[in-house]
Amino acid sequence: MNSTIAMITFRSMLGRRRALLLFVLPGVLLLLALILRLTNTSDLDVDTTVLQRFALGAVLPLLALIAGTGVIGPEIDDGQIMYILTKPIPRQVVILTKLMVAIVLVTLFAAVPTLLAGLILGAPAGLTPAFTVGVLVGGVAYASVFVALGVMSRNAVTIGLLYALVWESLFGNFAPGAKKASILQWALSVTDSLTEASTVKAAVSLPTALILLVVVSLAATVLASVRLRSLTVASAE
Amino acid sequence: MNVSTIHDIGYRHYEGKRLGRAYVTRSMFVHNLRAAYGLGRPARAKVMPFILAGIMLLPAVGDIAVVAIAKRPEALFPYTRYQFMLQLIISIFVATQAPVLASREIRFHSVPLYFSRPVVHLDLVLAKLAAFTTALFALTAIPITVLYVGGLVTQVPDSGEQLLHYLGGLAACLLLSLVLGAIGLVVAAFTPRRGFGVAAVIAVLLVSGVLVSIVQGITQNTGHWTLSGWLGLFTPYSLVDAVAYRLLGGKLSAVAAPPGVGGGVAALAVCAAIVLGAVTVLYARFRKAGLS
């Protein structure tokens, strides 16, 4: 961990207009929860739908994508990464620092709002802590995968979108096999094991999900630091 | 002395024909249309748009195969439902290509170079919007054309009705392309940072879609059918679906649509407001971009 790199990354992610999107996404979630609470329409089904489809299914992947690729992608693009790489800092420290920043951002802007939304909704059957933990572990896995993508490809955002939307959402609905290889389902499995609500159904069993979450996160982090070790900074197109 | 000369330091004058404003506008349109598919750029820029266009075609081809082999003409997708089914792919296309058209010149502060030519500010904005709309129309209209031709070849009954529905589907595609193009370009024009525009556009399209479908479902369960229909106007796909369902004789694909022909007209009015608003905002944005 390197505090200077962490500080610079935080500043670039939260500076001016860029932070707006980070605030708007959880803001919409909280607003929806508040409206449902005020109109008294929240019950077990509604709460599960909001937390599962909106917090876990839409806000988390988008925020992890913005945070994960945003902490390293733009710096590689405009060549500023050279100022970090030419200092005597091990590459894995650079990656770990960037990853920590991404995880902190995902926690602040996805996990905490999920907790707040659950509390506002007054979700029964322990849904609130279950989904908060689910979003948190899913966020760690998403963030490490997207940081690795950000190091490996200049089209990281698009590839991440194709994975999160086309593979996890679209194919996940048609082909049950695709559902098993999806970070979203692994996170949902963790949530499922923490709540007794029958409305949450995961496609993967808990031990498989936990093993896959850990393996994918570690593999992505290792891959990212290996790739950063031999990074060629291409000129702008 | 020529009016256009500031300092005549003896270079040879250009005495040919000046092609003028219309020609410049047409060139900007063609350039932006090519840019939307990465034509005239390295192969890296062509990969994404063509992969997405390919994915758009797959279900249509598969459906025709089912109709032809299993002899089940009722399995043919309704033309106006096709874009609703594949909205994720269309959204990703909008998200990846809108920044190509709207962010690049702003990011590199090269917009003023256009205005050193006989280009009116509005021309640039309209050329960009028209180019992106055309690109999106190609993306959405080709698959349903494949569906229609496939239906003709496999001799699906009621060819007159099929033609009417096909034309309705084309109109819905055009409307959707206009609305999505307008939204995409506006969001991309305000997020010039690389990679960030993509995320911003997809966030707007995806979050509005998920949000509206959740709230529509909840309001239907509590019995507020009319409210549920009107909520559909808040996201582009069900907005266009409302127009297609109420005015163009399509099938309902969204959760609900606003009631009666009046609902369809209201949806059409919202579409027009989005496009006009987008042109105004883009005009203001491109006029000031790069001068600061």
Offer a few descriptive terms.
heterodimer; A: 237 residues; mainly alpha; 0% strand; globular; B: 72% helix
Q: What features would you describe in this structure?
A:
The complex is a heterodimer of chains A (237) and B (292). Chain A has one domain. Chain A is 79% helix and 0% strand. Chain A is built from eleven helices and no strands. Chain A is globular and about 55 Å long. The model of chain A has no long low-confidence stretch (mean pLDDT 85). By secondary structure, chain B is an all-alpha fold. Chain B has one domain. Chain B contains twelve helices and no strands. Classes of the chains: A mainly alpha (237), B mainly alpha (292). At the A-B interface, helix 2, helix 3, helix 4 and helix 8 of A face helix 2, helix 4 and helix 9 of B.
Ends apart, CA distance between termini of chain B:
35 Å
Number of domains of chain A: 1
The quaternary structure here is heterodimer
Number of helices, where a helix is a run of at least 4 consecutive DSSP H or I residues of chain A: 11
Q: Which sequence of SSEs, written as H and E, runs from N to C of chain A?
A: HHHHHHHHHHH
Broad structural category of chain B: mainly alpha
What's the Cα radius of gyration of chain A? 18 Å
Measured between the Cα atoms of the first and last residue of chain A, the distance is 32 Å
Share of helix among residues of chain A?
A: over 70%
**Mean pLDDT across all residues of chain B, rounded?**
86
Low-confidence stretches of chain A: none
- What shape does the CA trace of chain A take? globular
Radius of gyration of chain B: 22 Å
The largest inter-chain interface, given as chain pair and residues per side, is: A-B, 39 and 34 residues
State the helix count of chain B. 12
What's the topology here?
The complex is a heterodimer of chains A (237) and B (292).
Chain A: H1 3-14, H2 18-38, H3 44-70, H4 73-77, H5 81-85, H6 91-121, H7 127-152, H8 156-174, H9 176-180, H10 183-194, H11 206-229
Helix pairs in contact in A: 1-6, 2-3, 2-6, 3-6, 3-7, 3-8, 6-7, 6-11, 7-8, 7-10, 7-11, 10-11
Chain B: H1 20-36, H2 43-70, H3 82-85, H4 87-102, H5 104-107, H6 111-114, H7 121-153, H8 159-189, H9 196-221, H10 225-231, H11 236-246, H12 260-288
Helix pairs in contact in B: 1-7, 2-4, 2-7, 4-7, 4-8, 4-9, 7-8, 7-12, 8-9, 8-11, 8-12, 9-10, 11-12
